[in-house]
Amino acid sequence: MLTQSLPLRHVSEFAADIREGLTKSGQRELPSKYLYDEVGSALFETICVLPEYGLTRADARLLEKHAREIVRLLPSPVHVAELGSGSGKKTRWILEALSRRQKTYYFPIEISPSALAACEKELGQIDLVSIVGYEQPYLEGLRAVARGRADGDHLLVLFLGSTIGNFDRDAGEEFLRSVRNILREGDALLLGTDLEKSVEVQMPAYDDPAGVTAAFNLNLLARINRELRGDFDLANFRHEARWNAIERRMEMHLRSTCRQRVEIPAAGLRVSLDEDETIWTESSHKYRIGEAGEMAARTGFRCEGQWVDAEWPFSQNLLIAE
Ligand code: AVJ
Predict the structure, then answer these.
(1) Taking all residues of the chain, what is their mean pLDDT, rounded to a whole number?
(2) From the centroid of its chain, how far is CA 103?
(3) Which of 130, 226, 277, 301 is deepest in the core (most CB within 10 A)?
């Protein structure tokens, strides 16, 4: 049996969030952060190597190519906190460049214990780098890291992979403002944003022919079955990717292919779904090239540098707290 040993506090939070999202009048929703249990994290790692999903490779290429230049623009001494480390693979370039100049602490902040473990394994062997993982939500973890630092130490916060795209635009800016409030003047935020591209390229990245993204999306229902004793029949749902041109975002939905009832006892929930009704599971906002700088200016940062991938429109933005 596959068991996910969630602490009780998390179980009830998960149940409450699921209940809230599924009982919404109008469009039902499930929060995208719950896509990443052990199975979901493994499926996401597979998405990252799909030929159709260029995002992660672009992110990594930019870091590999420009890490030294980025590090040269940072204050010293500086330690690294990463929001949502995932496997930690692309972070290696930054840590290696930094460790050439000083002993460096790396604080991955990640709610997924399996991702945190993978990241510690991936990056644990770099000379002059010490890892201390925080299994916490982003802002709580960042606050804990900031509280623990010495007076003269600066922080570089990594928010890579266009994870900011999961937030609605307003909420994304509010999030940057909250990050800024935890930082000191001169601290840095390296922000990765996926840029707008043609729909012909964008769509298959979220609806790949091998069905990995479909499995990633459907696993959210399987997770609810595993952890909250739900009875979703996954055969009665279809993965759907949509480009929302007005909001400039990709959306993932799960479409109910028939009229059906679902029970989720551990969330105290019974839901009736109509045929063709969808549950909205994720947004991935796409940005214009100048947008990161504009967001920075409105949230207490200045944009000190921007690097754009030539193959897959994606940008790294070095923001400095003012
Ligand atoms: C990890 C949130 C950046 O939105 O592109 C990949 C997650 N969803 N395929 C994204 C994801 C579907 C990914 N982020």
Answers:
(1) 95
(2) 27
(3) 301
